[in-house]
Amino acid sequence: MRKLLAMIFCFTIVLYSGCTKEEQPVSPGNTDDKLIVVGFSQVGAESEWRVANTENIKDTLTEENGYVLIFDDARQEQENQIRAIRMFIQQDVDYIVFSPKVETGWNSILLEAKEADIPVLVIDRYIEQQDEELYTAYIGSDFYKEGETAVSWLADFLEKRGRKEEPIRIVHIQGTIGSTPQIGRTAALEEAIRKHPNWELVAQECGDFTKAKAYEVMGSILKQTKDIDVVYCENDGEALGAIAAMEEAGLKCDPYGGVIVISFDATRLGLEYCLSGKITLNVECNPLQGPYVDEIIKKLEQGESIEPKNYIDETYFDYSSISREIIDNRKY
Ligand code: GZL
């Protein structure tokens, strides 16, 4: 008898993997609630931030919490995300959740999801919106505000050190071109450079949110000039790559007369660099979006109204405010 039960149980587990929502058995424990089937298309695994974002979604959309999660890693290719979303539509999932690698190129596939009557939740990055309402809700960060936080802090820091009028030579390492965080964080810096005539952009290159690419482009920049006051990196991975390249070239990265490094994400690794002073300012970008997704789906399941745009609260840390205790208590 136990063997027969074990076989039935294994067969049930196999059913979970590829069947549609109609075939979903009820969740163990509550006999009347069907599990909510969610297809999640993730950009990739390019940074510590992305890994934390993925882990948080997986830790939230669990079977115990009433879900079957179908996960796809697009490995940084938009085509893979479009293919995954089409697969979710064919599997007739209950919801589609995705973080769009870039803002454009989604209208056609999201129209297919709309025609299949499958609600889409956009997380993390944003999509360029045409006339149709192609998604149900957005959960993420205000990236321009993150950039504004960084440049306002920098202006204040320089003024306090009597460098308000001094020439400030800035290297800018951008994230994935066309992604919402790159667009917002870049716009804030470029606006600040327009406002501060003594701030000069000596180089602007794409680091694609990775340590390896940032190390490579920073190395090329250093062959042209080492007369650099600030390096503005659009995530922690880029900051680590740029710092490695600068230290190899004999430059010091610190707020005490060295190169001022600004970063975004405030991952635990990035904050370790902040504690050492190698990163002077780290603006938080919160990847813990799973609970927001769970709350919105549960509201939709109950027919309750939801906010179409949901921004996550964020803060910043600098070389003087960061501490071992803060880092040890961080969730990512
Ligand atoms: C921001 C997120 C960015 C992070 C990077 O919400 O899209 O992508 O800042 C990640 O670390 O690669």
Blueprint of the fold:
Layout: H1 2-18, E1 36-42, H2 48-60, E2 67-73, H3 78-90, E3 95-98, H4 107-115, E4 120-124, E5 137-140, H5 143-160, E6 168-174, H6 180-195, E7 199-206, H7 211-224, E8 230-233, H8 236-248, E9 260-265, H9 268-276, E10 281-284, H10 290-301, E11 309-311, E12 316-318, H11 324-328
Parallel strand pairs: 1-2, 1-3, 3-4, 4-5, 5-11, 6-7, 6-8, 8-9, 9-10
Antiparallel strand pairs: 10-12
Helix pairs in contact: 2-10, 3-4, 5-6, 7-8
The structure holds beta-D-galactofuranose (GZL).
How would you describe what is shown here?
- It is a single chain.
- With 332 residues, the chain is an alpha/beta fold.
- It has 2 domains: 2-139 and 288-301, 3-Layer(aba) Sandwich (Rossmann fold), CATH 3.40.50.2300; 143-285 and 318-328, Response regulator (Rossmann fold).
- It has 11 helices and 12 strands.
- It has a 6-stranded parallel sheet, with helices on both faces. A 6-stranded mixed sheet has the order 7-6-8-9-10-12, sandwiched between helices.
- Strand 9 (260-265), helix 9 and strand 10 form a beta-alpha-beta unit.
- The longest helix has 18 residues, at 143-160.
- The chain is elongated, with a radius of gyration of 23 Å.
- The N and C termini lie far apart (46 Å).
- Residues 1-20 and 25-32 have low confidence and may be disordered.
